[in-house]
């Protein structure tokens, strides 16, 4: 029996590689001789680089600027001329000081620095996962790291973060175009929000990053000014005007918008990662696929890992079960998406805190239960 464990992280609890390892331990304990393939995955957010490394990419250390300016030791993944970069580990929300937030000043510079490092190391295709952003700066910091000049009326550099965009007067992207002249940029993101408006980057996502209503208003005005200056900039104006309303421009606090300005192609995060991991090949000859993430809920239906894996497994005619810290979808909904059964850590743990703090033993029990149930069904 060949089992593929294509699982995402349990956010705030356990990385994907550990989830897969615990499930595998329980499975092989239940039945010796199993062929278990551990394939940690991600959906474009935190863990995307780890998923690429698990699939055979080389991890390359890189030093970047964190969201509040502190030095961050991160990495990107490289295979041949393709690199994989993630915003979350270079300048993401998880890198803010403990208990702190910086909705007005957090910058996306770090992800631009990682992209630049990959290009300078020879990458000619760069996949950028945009999940987990701490900033709402329209991708200005990312652009600056890639060689853009963003100046105020006096010719000085604008301040970091979304608030700094309020002073922007002139933009020159020629340095970015020089750097990326022969580079294909692919954005892995599932966000469909535009840059501005009631569904835009500031209105929807800035409150999750600590912004109060007045700060959301200021950020919206700053992003509007940023887009207006770009729309009036020779050589980029028409693209900038169209990009404002693009479904995905609001990703990562507007980094999606900045990526569009420099010619990036957008693809669903889970589809990109599953291709990086070559899931279609891994599924060949498999008898069962186990997928999962921390909370399997309505959001999971919007391009998250379990549904993406289930879709690929259906194409390969391989049955699928899902594992989560908690399962909030009913059996009928799961079945509609090709998932036969569901197993939740919270159903075994004595309380929610324990299930989050130490899910390992319960995942091992779930792994054993999956194999037991397959043998007796």
UniProtKB/TrEMBL annotation:
Keywords: Kinase, Transferase. One of its GO terms (biological process) is organic acid phosphorylation. One of its GO terms (molecular function) is glycerate kinase activity. Pfam families: Gly_kinase (PF02595). Belongs to the glycerate kinase type-1 family. This is Glycerate kinase.
